[in-house]
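Posted in: Protein Modeling Q&A

I'm a second-year student putting together a small comparison for a lab meeting, and my supervisor asked me to include a predicted structure for DUF4352 domain-containing protein. I've never done this before, so apologies if this is the wrong subforum. The sequence is pasted below exactly as I got it from our records. If anyone can share the structure token output, I'd also love a short note on what stands out.
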Amino acid sequence: MRLLLSLVLVGLAALILAFLQSTTPSYAVLTGPIETIGRQKDAVSSKTFSVKVDKIIRAKTLAFTRYGKPIERQTEGVWVIAGVELQTKHETMTIQAAEIEGASGRLYRQSHRADGAPRLVSTKTLQPGLSSTGIVIFELPEADARDMTLVVSKQPSPQLDSEIRVKLDQSTIEMRDRAEIGDNGV
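Accepted answer (user: helix_wrangler)
Welcome! Here is the predicted structure, written out as tokens:
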């Protein structure tokens, strides 16, 4: 009888352990970003910084001046330019990671084809208590340029750090054939 009781208890313990293992989140989930989610019309604030999306522009051609030389970039897809206002709360920091999550769920990082454009967020240093405005530029397929979410964080793939996700309002996106970026914005 004792042997049968021992086998039942060992079997029950094994079932409980198997259940606990199957329901425990993975290491990546446990140490992933601390997400804050909001909408475009709101200033979305995490523990370390805040983001407010002012306007979104879609264009086929991107034009700007770099080192006194005019640059023009065209795309098979679409350029998405987001004007944002950023503010850090406690420490001096830079925003090194901004991505657009498209309709397919794929993430698109800032385009390096637009490096050197004026007012890029990645070139700014944020100071506590002072707001700073800038732009982030993405190049993505036309099909993914609807139902978009802007994802902003201090660093790529943040672990146990703030990440802000801003759902973009499709009705406020301005369509242009050519977007010219100057020192005063788009």
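A couple of things worth pointing out for your meeting: The chain has one domain: 33-180. Helices lie at 2-23, 27-30.
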